[in-house]
Amino acid sequence: MTTDPQRPHRGTIHASDAEVLAHASWPDDQYVLRLAAPACAAAARPGQFVHVQCAAHIPMRRPLSLLRADAGAGWIEVLYKTHGVGLAALAAARPGDRVSVLGPIGRGFEPVAARPQAVLIGGGVGIPPLVFLAERLRADGAVPLPVGFFGSELPFPFALRTATVPLPGTPPAASASLAALDALGIAVRLASRAGHPGCHPGFVTDLARAWLATRPPADLDRMVVYACGPGPMLQATQRLAREFALPTQLCLEEFMACAVGGCAGCAVMVHGPDGPAMKRVCVDGPVFDAERVFPAAA
Length: 298
Hints:
Blueprint: E1 14-26, E2 30-36, H1 38-43, E3 49-52, E4 62-70, E5 75-81, H2 84-90, E6 98-105, E7 117-123, H3 128-139, E8 147-151, E9 160-162, E10 176-178, H4 179-183, E11 187-191, H5 204-212, H6 217-220, E12 223-228, H7 231-243, E13 248-251, E14 267-272, E15 275-280, H8 281-284, E16 287-289, H9 290-293
């Protein structure tokens, strides 16, 4: 595929007949699927997604955010929850099976050199792109390391442990972390209104607000927020970021039929210098500047 110099992310899509390497199930019909897809893994960036054919008899693919990608080993991982017959069929895949994958697709997160402190806010199945971003920043030698706040009403589909990385300013009830990120020295705290142990009993944005309120202005001036999750959570995240004058990048979740810009079924209103315009989440995003999606005057 030829790369458009104005849209370099449009030249990354590879078609893979990917072998299932591992398929782990988690409570409440949540799954983590690892696929052998070397070309996709080599090009993948946090915030991008893949378009997966769930079964040979189901022609419509499903868009799934990238949870991880290992270019050296040639694999990618996605997290999903079964909704409908498509993902229910995908849940039946076993190691050794083959799955058709297109990707990586879309515009990913863009780290901001002038604001090196990444603050990650994720909800539900919006958490995977932020795990990918956290691990990528860590591998790239980011200083300081990112800080994460993740929320879910379902049990978290990740191994958890009591946080060992201190994060002064967070409520004492928020004592749990994602084990994989905590082991990398990345401070993460969790929120849930479902009473999960070690989680702040409320919205993830309230947990993040409690921490941000303790940060001095000099620290805030070095921060940028990266977020992914359901629409109401993203709106709340942008209101929170505006309170603290933090630039924010949002990874949007929309239903995508073709996922390559042809059908425009995922178009959303985006505000720019020339006024509002409809943009396709699949190829113009899924990552957008928050002020373009939820402007203060709108």
